[in-house]
């Protein structure tokens, strides 16, 4: 059974058809990257999956369950989690306190401290645990945000341009984090422009164009597809 499936998903904003009959399927245990030119409808599709927009028509299934009518918090309770591009961290609190806020209601105190230590190691933020989150570098803030998104161990993680603004080294380290999460069983859907990252992590790539699924396949198939090169990859330094 797929972890996530959209069937005939449509979204209109007035006369603008932004999501056009999208059938997307993520198998459990898959890392799937969503690419496409600016304005292709990637963010809108993300918001539909998360429940921040209601579709004009179509169905969304999580683990086989129809979640189309559920609110975002109900989807999160069913094991979905998201990291947006703009960090939603509390700058005046320490790195550790940010993770505590995300996790405090879900663990006993002793287990909480242990889980946070493990997570800080995973995020390469152990040395920064006591620092104000506002003092972290841009890449570290993104990692803290990923930490908050994975702190409750979702089965489906949505990442919106996780490596935006990162150096190549930080991008690679982020890819390794995604690979480790995936090795532990997490299914991941990432909107991403950085083709090195896509090549590093993706089992499958979907190209969106004008709100539609334009092409789908492995990264090698996508890079070899001249139709994709014509609309997108020329701009993306594949
Ligand atoms: N709330 C809205 N109301 C009206 N139009 C919208 C709304 N949200 C998005 N759009 C339009 O839908 C189209 C797709 O936008 P979307 O942000 O989903 O694309 P994208 O692929 O994520 O682009 P980018 O890579 O630039 O973020 C754009 O033309 C945008 O102007």
TrEMBL record:
Q: Origin organism of this chain? A: Labrys monachus
Q: Which SUPFAM superfamilies match?
A: P-loop containing nucleoside triphosphate hydrolases
Q: Report the SMART domains cross-referenced here.
A: AAA
Protein name from the UniProt record: Branched-chain amino acid transport system ATP-binding protein
Q: Does the keyword ATP-binding apply?
A: yes
Q: What are the UniProt keywords, alphabetically?
A: ATP-binding, Nucleotide-binding, Transport
Q: What PROSITE patterns does this protein's entry cite?
A: ABC_TRANSPORTER_2
Q: Identify the domain of life.
A: Bacteria
Family matches, as Pfam families: ABC_tran
GO MF assignments:
ATP binding
UniProt domain ABC transporter: residue ranges: 4-235
């Amino acid at each position: 059974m797929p972890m996530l499936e959209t069937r005939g998903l449509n979204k209109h904003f007035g006369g603008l058809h932004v999501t056009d009959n999208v059938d997307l399927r993520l198998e459990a245990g898959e890392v799937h990257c969503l690419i496409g030119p600016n304005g292709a409808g990637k963010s809108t599709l993300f918001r539909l999956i998360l429940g921040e927009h209601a579709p004009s028509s179509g169905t969304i299934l999580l683990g086989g369950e129809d979640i189309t009518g559920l609110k975002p918090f109900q989807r999160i309770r069913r094991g979905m989690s998201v990291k947006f591009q703009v960090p939603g961290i509390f700058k005046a609190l320490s790195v550790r306190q940010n993770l505590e806020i995300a996790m405090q209601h879900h663990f006993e105190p002793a287990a909480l401290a242990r889980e946070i230590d493990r997570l800080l190691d995973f995020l390469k933020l152990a040395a920064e645990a006591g620092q104000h989150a506002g003092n972290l570098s841009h890449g570290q803030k993104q990692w803290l945000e990923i930490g908050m998104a994975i702190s409750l161990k979702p089965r489906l993680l949505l990442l919106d341009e996780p490596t935006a603004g990162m150096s190549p080294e930080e991008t690679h380290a982020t890819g390794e984090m995604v690979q480790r999460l995936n090795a532990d069983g997490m299914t991941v859907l990432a909107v991403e422009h950085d083709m090195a990252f896509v090549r590093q992590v993706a089992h499958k790539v979907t190209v969106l164009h004008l709100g539609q699924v334009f092409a789908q396949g492995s990264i090698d198939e996508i890079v070899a597809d001249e139709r994709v090169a014509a609309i997108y990859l020329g701009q993306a330094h594949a």
